[in-house]
Write a structure and sequence with these properties.
By secondary structure, the chain is of the alpha+beta class. The protein starts with a helix and ends with a helix. It has ten helices and four strands. The longest helix has 23 residues, at 117-139. It has a four-stranded mixed beta sheet, sandwiched between helices.
Length: 242
């Protein structure tokens, strides 16, 4: 793949004189020669431009792949291979390469001044942040220290985000905040409770109960209820063994 991409990098050798930035997202195994042909309208319109090439595994298996996928979500990528156009503010337009023509390229560039650009970017960024939070929790093992705090801070920020729906908040509370706080408690517990570890456990339980009570009839609410009962039974059993 590196040998195949070399002609592309030389041909479309990430800023133009106009401050435009171009990124091409493509699946592993995509034909590089076909991509080169499809980028002809860009070469003609912006011969001095450079392109950044990103292989996108849509089913990420590690954190670097997940970061690429999150960046694609931020850009609004929906089809591959795809050209993303951006500037110093960030990405603002996407074009599937098989739809790239001088006309569609000009229309895409006009999106830089669209009145709803900032709002659309915020929605995409919100989706990408949620995706990346779940990915960090899945792929960062063990999750502790600075990485754990980063996930906690991100989770709380997302739960307070203006775009967060009640369902989003419940899901984040149950699937992220509660297990992250429980992980914090686990790192503090060394065989015997301390006031700090006990307080952390109670904080985790409070997050779990808040997620349960947000909507007890939803799928997430029912899962949170079952988890709360599991914890209650585990604590009862632990007391009988003391």
């Amino acid at each position: 793949m590196k040998r195949l991409l070399l002609p592309l990098l030389l041909m479309c050798s990430a800023l133009t004189a106009l401050g435009e930035e171009y990124t091409v997202y493509f699946r592993p195994g995509t034909n590089a020669a076909a991509m080169a042909r499809r980028l002809a309208p860009l070469r003609a319109a912006a011969p001095q431009s450079e392109c950044r090439y990103v292989v996108l595994n849509e089913q990420a298996t590690n954190l670097p792949e997940a970061i690429n996928a999150a960046n694609a979500l931020k850009a609004g990528v929906q089809e591959l291979p795809c050209l993303v156009i951006g500037d110093a503010t960030g990405p603002y337009a996407t074009l599937p390469l098989d739809e790239l023509t001088p006309t569609t390229l000009a229309a895409a560039k006009a999106a830089a001044s669209a009145p709803d650009r900032a709002a659309q970017a915020e929605r995409r960024n919100f989706t990408a942040q949620q995706y990346l939070l779940f990915a960090r929790m899945a792929f960062t093992q063990p999750l502790q220290g600075e990485a754990l705090q980063k996930c906690l801070n991100t989770c709380r920020a997302l739960m307070a985000h203006p775009l967060t729906t009640p369902a989003d908040k419940q899901r984040l509370g149950f699937e992220c905040l509660y297990p992250l706080l429980l992980q914090e408690y686990t790192t503090m517990y060394t065989g015997a409770h301390t006031p700090a570890s006990e307080a952390k456990l109670l904080e985790a339980i409070a997050a779990l109960e808040a997620a349960r009570d947000a909507d007890r009839n939803s799928t997430t609410g029912k899962k949170a209820h079952a988890e709360r009962e599991r914890l209650r039974a585990a604590r009862r059993q632990a007391r009988t063994m003391e």
